[in-house]
Amino acid sequence: MTVEMETLAVRLPEGMVQVARWTPSDGPARGEIVLLHQGLGSITQWGSFPEALGAATACRVTAYDRLGYGRSDFPDDERGDFLEREAWERLPALLDALGVEQPILYGHSDGGTIALLYASERPAALAGLVSEAAHVFSEVAETGGIEALRAEFETGDLARKLARHHPRHLDRMFHRWADFWQAPGRDDWTMLERLAAIECPVLIVQGDADEHGSLRQVDEIVERVHGPAERRILPGCGHSPHREQPQAVLAAVAPFVAAILQGNRAPHT
Q: Which of 265, 102, 107, 120 is nearest to 194 (CA)?
C-alpha cells in the first residue's frame, strides 16, 4: 500500500500548530490514527514510522508538533499542568479543527500520558489507544535522569541533535520540559485514579529495558482501565520502541487496529 504525505498549519486559540498527515492513496482510509510525540519530540522525530503505520493499517495517520515544539508557535501562557492542558484543551481543539472523529490515539512517553488523560476525560470519543512507554505515575527512574539531560544539553551534543527538530524554540522548549519534571512535588505526580474512566481498547507497548520507566507503569494501566487492555513487552528495548524495534511494534499495532475497525474488543491480557 502506498501512502501520500501532506503538511498543513492549523490555527488554534493559542497559536499555529504544525501538522503532517499520511493518507493511503490506494483507496479510502479505514480509520484515523493520531500520533502524540514524546516530551522532547516533534513530527520529524517520528521518522519513517508514520508512513509505515499508515501502510500497515490502511489508516490515515496524523502527527503534530505540540505548541512550543518543532515548528509550532510557543504559547504565551504556560502553566505547570501542561499534560492535562494538552489532553483536555489543546488536543480536543486540534481534533475539532481537523474534523477528526473517533480516532485511535497513539502516544509515546509524555504523548502516551496525554492520550490516556484525554481518554479518561472523554471516554466515548476514541476508537482505541496505543500507549508506548507512557508514565502514569512519577518514579525515580523517570525523574532521576533529568539533571543528566540538562548537563548534556548545556555542554554535550543534545542541543545540536535537537536543533534540527526544534528550529524555533529550542532553549525554551527544553527548559520548560525539564523544569516541569523537576518542579517541587513532582515526585508525587500520578494519574492512577483517572485510569478507571478509560473505556476504549488500549494496547500498552513498552521495552523491558526502558531507561525512563519500569514495567509497573504497564501493570497499573492494564489493571486499572475499565475497557479491554493488552500489553506487548519488547525484550531488550529501551524508551522508544517505534524507533528501536519498529517491525515488532507494527506487528503488535496492526492487528490491534484491525480488531478495533472490525468491532472486536480483546480481553484484558
A: 120
